[in-house]
Amino acid sequence: MVRLGFVIGFVAVIGIFLSGLAAWRAHDQELAIDNIALSRAIDVHASLVQERLIERELLARVASGLFRSPSAVQANMLHPLRASIYAFKTDFVIAWWVACLEPSEFPQAHDVLAAAGFPDSQIRSFDDTPRDLRSLDKPIDVIMDVEPQDAQTTGFLGRSLDQHPILGPMFARAMQTKTSVVSDPLNLMGRNGPIGLVIATPVFQEESETAAGFVTFSYKLASLMLTNDELSLFSVVLKDPRNPGSELIADDSGNVTSRLGWGANPVPMVLRTVTFGGRDWSLGYYPKVNAMHRAQKLAAVVAAIGLALTSIICGLFGYVAYNNLRLSREIQVRIGFERRLTAVIDELNHRVKNILAVIQSIVTRTLRHGSDIEVARELLIGRIHAMSNVVSLLSESQWQGVKLRGLFEARAIPHVDRIAIHGPDITVSARAAQSLSLLFFELASHSDEGLSLVGKHPNIVVHWGIEGEADKALFHFRWEEFNTSAATRREDSDFGIILLDRVAPEALGGVSKRYFTEVSYVYELAAPMDTVVDLTERDRTMQISNPASSTSSE
C-alpha cells in the first residue's frame, strides 16, 4: 500500500505540473489567436474602407469628366448625369453643381433659378441670410443644382459657399490643385444633420485654366467608415482633422459623435491610414473584447479541467491495478476476435476479387468490338443482375451455399414462368452457385427470340439428378427447350458460348454439351458432386462465421 500511495502521489504531482503547463500554453495560444484574428479583421476592414473611398472619388472624377459646363448660366445641370451617378450606387446624400459665377452673372442666375420653379431664387449666404451682391467684384461659388431634388434639398439652391468655414477653403484648394478635394467633417443637411464629408471636383471649360464650377458629393461619415457591424471584433474611430485631441466614433445606429481621444481614452490598439481626396485619414481600432481577460479565463478553465482529470486518474489508478487480471483476460478475448476478424476480411477479399474478376470478364465479353450496343446493354444488365441476385442469396445464407431451386426463383432469370423444374433439393457451394446462376441466365436469355414451329413460345424443362455414391457421385444437369429450333432460337453470344462450353464446366470440374433435336434445344452438364457441393469451402465458411470462443486459457 505504501508503494501504491507513493505512485499515486507521484502521478498527482505530474498531473498538477502538466495542468499548469497546459493552462500556460492555452493562455498564450488564445492570446496570440485573438490578436491574429483581430489584426486580420482590421486589415480587411481598412482595405474595404479604402476601396469604398476610391469608388466615391472615382465617381466624382467620372461625373466631372462627363459634365459639360455651358457657356450660359443654367439650372438642372445634373440631369444628364443622373443615370451615371446613380449607377455607381455609392449612397451619397446630396450631389451639387456649384457654379463659379462672375458678378455680371448674378442676375442671370437669379432668373434661371426662378424660371426653374425653385422656391428661393435669390443668391444668398450659405446660412440662408441675405448677401450684398453689389459690393462683390470677384467670382463666388453658388449652388445651381442638386440631386436628388426634394422639398429639403431644393432649399439649398442659390446659396453661396465661398464664405462657408469648411466648404469655402475646400473649393479654394480644389481650384488651386485642379483635382478632387475632400472637406473636413461637417454636419450635412443643416446644423443638426449627420456628420459627413464632401468631395468636390473642379470642372473646366474647354481651353480654359479657370474652373467653371464644381461637381460635389456628400457622404455620411458612418457609411464611409463601415461602422454598422454589430458582430465586429472592434470599434473604429476617425481622428478629427479639426482637433488632433478628439476622435469621431459611430454607434451601431450609424450616429457619429465627437469625443476626446488619443489622450483621455486608451490609445487604439491599431492605427491605419487611408487616402481620400488627396488627404490622409487616420482610422483607430479599439477591441470590443479584452483578449487578455479571455485568455486568462481559458487558462483557468484548462487548469481546472487538468486538476479534475488528475484527481480522476489518481482515483482510478488503484481500481485499474486491482482489475488488471480481468482486463488482461478481456484483452486476450479481443485478440482472438481480431484474429477471427482478419480471417473474415481475408475471406471477403478473396470472394470480392473473384466476383470482380467475373464481372470484368462479363463486361469485356459483352461489350466486345462490333457488338450491337442495345443488345449488349440488355445482356450486360441481365448478367450483372444475375450476379447480384446470387450474391444476395449467398449473403442471406452467410456464404454457406444456395439451394439449387432458389436460383430459378430469382427474378434475374428471364421467362422463369415457362420453366418446369425437376430434381432433388440440394445445396450447391458459393462458387458453383455463381457459375450456375450465369449459366441459367445465358440459357434463358436466348430462349425467346420469337414464335417457332407451331407458333408458340418455347417451354423449358430443367432436370438434374445425382448418380453414384460417396466420392464417385456425379451431378447431371439437363436443360431442354421444346418447340424451338436452330432457325428460331437466338444465337448464343461469344460470352455465352464460352460460359456454356468452357467456363461453367471447368468451374465444376465437369463436361458439357449442347445440341438440337427435331423439336428442342438441349444443354447437358455433368460434374463430380465434390465440386458442386465443395465441403471444404462450406467448412471454412462455417468456421469463420461461428462466434469467437473465449481464449482466456491462452
From TrEMBL:
Ranges where the CHASE domain occurs: 142-232
InterPro entries, per database record: CHASE_dom (IPR006189), Sig_transdc_His_kinase_HWE (IPR011102)
Annotated PANTHER family: HISTIDINE KINASE, TWO-COMPONENT SYSTEM SENSOR PROTEIN
Transmembrane parts of this sequence: 6-24, 298-322
GO molecular function: ATP binding; protein histidine kinase activity
EC number: 2.7.13.3
Record carries keyword Kinase: yes
Naturally occurring in which organism (per UniProt): Nitrobacter vulgaris
Assigned keywords, A-Z: ATP-binding, Kinase, Membrane, Nucleotide-binding, Phosphoprotein, Transferase, Transmembrane, Transmembrane helix
SMART domains the UniProt entry points to: CHASE (SM01079), HWE_HK (SM00911)
Keyword Iron: no
Entry superkingdom: Bacteria
Protein name: histidine kinase
Annotated catalysed reactions: ATP + protein L-histidine = ADP + protein N-phospho-L-histidine
